[in-house]
Amino acid sequence: MWELDWGQAALLASLISNPVRNDPTLHPDTSRRQRQLALDRLVTLGKVSTADAEKYGRAPLPQVRCGTENQDSPQCKCLQAPAKQDYFTELVRRQLLENPFYGIGKTREEREQVVYGGGLRVKTTLQPLAQLSAYQARDEVLPKVSGVTAALVSIEPGTGAVRAMLGGPGFDFYEHNIATEGLRQTGSSFKTFALLTALEQGAVPSDFILGGGDFPCKGCPGNVYNMPGPGGTLTSVTTVSSNGAFVRLGLIDGLENIATMARKLGVTAPLEPPPLSLPLGTKEVTPLEMASAYSSIPNGGNYQPWYVIESIEDRYGHVVYQHRPTAQRQYSQQTSCLATQILAENVRSGTGRNATLSKQPAAGKTGTTNDGADTWFIGFTPYLTTAIWVGDIAPGPDGQPRRNPVRTIAGRENFGGQFPALLWGNFNERFHSSLPVVGFPECLPTRPGRFINSNWDYLLPADAPPTGFIPFPSLPGTPPPTTARRASPAPPTSKPPSTDTTVKAPPTTAGPPPTSAPPTTAASP
């Protein structure tokens, strides 16, 4: 303050009453008048002479606001925009500056004037106790190994509100927000989109599917894509995360249909053209989008886009923005219930056992890519959906983030069911400790399980699978004979409630064959 002259001090004093209206870069004439009023008051108080007041009143006004776009301007000298604080607050700042729909300015320059000019009251979605639980869980579960870190995003399913976020080790070490900007291969956690697609097309958890084998693939070595993995029911191939069964399920679903399902649930990352390995998570998605997409499951098939700003008030208390929910039904309530049933079994007895909670029911899916470069657990309770990613962020020679192998962490094997699932369980145990236990909904009755053929054309009773079918957990068998008779779905064993949503009948043809070879980094469970 001792470096300011009286003219500069008077200008700052004039801004207090109305930072926007008296801003010299926006309204120079008004600013000049207000500055002079402050100088005249200084004359009255005997602080400056009349001559000095006139001299300071003729001084040029600032023409440039020192924000992020022009902090190197000579007028700004060493002044800079407010320092970044953490991943969440930085995300909020960027949302305010980059999006015009908040009503604080039509251009980025106008929005910078309002944000940095002061007077805004921004209410965010962050829940302090959830955020504290995230920090504590990470520090307790994840060993301190150079380069290894975790990203966490927690979303309230019914609203889309982001309640907690860890974007990495912190701005002191790494400013890149992995949670929002870290495009990472999702591994087997992407299988959930194939599962949702199958259930929406009429499958049920007890349906049988063959395991892996050789799949026709144009552009692959020998035009064949080989992926092993056992067959079994949709539930069992999910709990063991059978890659081969899910490649087969991808062809049955139609790869384009799986990509469409992901798109409907907010995944904006490039998925086209969808390769055979799409269900295995070889495409890259951010943790934020994965958490947001999974949130539709505990929300009954309704997708709520994620958001971080609840409301904005100006300096007078007038509400200039208020978030409004925009939920859209993307699949049936029965599909969401059956998917919950399968993913809850995965936590009870499958690859997600380390995510088990002491009281609250939980459901979710692990994901592990080649060499542990990306390991995941994405799961939900009736209260909260949380995506966990663990990996190594050590930069490449060009200084940019890269996918580093992480086969072990502190001597322990690294995979989705290990550190990500443990971290997920620790965080959710803390978060739910004081909440009443709420169970998952009960599903409507389903038909008996049947054998699923490659084109949905053959649905045979599960107790009489065709010749050549070897059920889980053995190696995959051979396709059913072409003379197999198609069976009609059996009616439910009891009359469903009147609120039942109709489940779509399965199509009679599969999606088109892939036109390109799948990436070589096929995911593992």
Write the SSE topology:
Blueprint: H1 6-17, H2 28-44, H3 50-57, H4 87-98, H5 108-117, E1 121-124, H6 128-141, E2 148-155, E3 162-166, H7 178-181, E4 184-185, H8 191-200, E5 208-209, E6 213-216, E7 224-227, E8 232-233, H9 234-239, H10 243-253, H11 255-264, E9 284-285, H12 287-294, E10 302-303, E11 309-313, E12 319-322, E13 328-329, H13 333-349, E14 363-368, E15 375-380, E16 385-392, E17 408-409, E18 412-413, H14 419-431, E19 450-452, E20 459-461
Helix pairs in contact: 1-2, 2-3, 4-5, 6-14, 8-10, 8-11, 8-13, 10-11
How would you describe the overall organization of this protein?
With 525 residues, the protein is an alpha+beta fold. Helices cover 29% and strands 14% of the residues. The protein is built from 14 helices and 20 strands. A five-stranded antiparallel sheet has the order 3-2-16-15-14, sandwiched between helices. The chain has a three-stranded antiparallel sheet with strand order 1-11-12, with no helix packed on it. A two-stranded antiparallel ribbon has the order 4-9. α8 (191-200) crosses α11 and α8 (191-200) packs across α13 (333-349). The model is unreliable at 67-71, 77-83 and 456-522 (pLDDT under 50).
Task: Describe the structure in brief.
The protein contains 14 helices and 20 strands.
Low-confidence stretches: 67-71, 77-83, 456-522
Which oligomeric form is depicted?
single chain
Tertiary shape: elongated
Q: In percent, how helical is the residue content?
A: 25-40%
Whole-number average pLDDT?
84
User: Biggest β-sheet, characterized?
Assistant: 5 strands, antiparallel
- Which strand-content bin applies to the residues? 5-15%
Cross-sheet strand order for the largest sheet: 3-2-16-15-14
| Class by alpha and beta content | alpha+beta
Radius of gyration: 29 Å
